[in-house]
Amino acid sequence: MSFGDVTLFRKRRSGFWLAAALVVVGLGSGCVSRRMMVYSDPPGALVVLEGREIGYTPVAVDFLYYGTREFTLIKDGYETRTVLQKVPPPWYQLPVIEFFADNFAFHTITDRHAFTYTLEPRRIMLNEDVLNRAEQLRTEAQVGP
């Protein structure tokens, strides 16, 4: 073997190992699929997630980060409900472990969270009740603390 043949052999061997490494990384390039499902009783409530309308229940939305999320549910005839919902991370999303789960898992990891909220019927106040409450507040204001 000449010097040129040895150099060519080494280049091919290096290329082989580089290709093998890329295949291994490609096979192990896992990812985490995160999704929240929101249900309401009764169904059909508009869901606003942190100021952005995402749809009517039942509805699902993908997310990237864990933590406390603000859901607002709106439906005609029912009280609007705003909830600060904690979305806790699973064990494989803790620091350091997360890097390996997101980048080197051999399959897609699926993380699903389902939240169900009950809406209360809207209370209808009669005009007489409103006037009585106004008179009560006026009297309290005149008397003072």
Number of E-type strands:
7
Shape: elongated
Q: What would CATH call the architecture of the largest domain?
A: Sandwich
| Main sheet overview | 4 strands, antiparallel
Q: Look at the structure and give the CATH class of the largest domain.
A: Mainly Beta
Would you give the CATH topology of the largest domain? Immunoglobulin-like
Radius of gyration: 29 Å
Oligomer: single chain
Distance between the termini: 104 Å
Strand percentage: 25-35%
Helix share of residues? 25-40%
Number of domains: 2
What structural class should be given to the helix and strand makeup? alpha+beta
Regions with pLDDT < 50 over 5+ consecutive residues?
none
Notable characteristics:
7 strands; 33% strand; four-stranded antiparallel beta sheet; alpha+beta; Immunoglobulin-like; single chain; three-stranded mixed beta sheet
Please, could you describe this protein's structure?
- The protein folds into two domains: 29 residues; 109 residues, Sandwich (Immunoglobulin-like).
- A hairpin with a 6-residue loop joins β5 and β6.
- The protein is elongated, with a radius of gyration of 29 Å.
- The chain has a four-stranded antiparallel β-sheet with strand order 3-2-5-6, with no helix packed on it.
- It is an alpha+beta fold and 145 residues long.
- The protein contains three helices and seven strands.
Which secondary structure elements does this structure contain, and how are they paired or packed?
Layout: H1 3-27, E1 32-41, E2 46-49, E3 52-56, E4 59-62, E5 67-74, E6 81-87, H2 97-104, E7 109-118, H3 127-143
Parallel strand pairs: 1-7
Antiparallel strand pairs: 1-4, 2-3, 2-5, 5-6
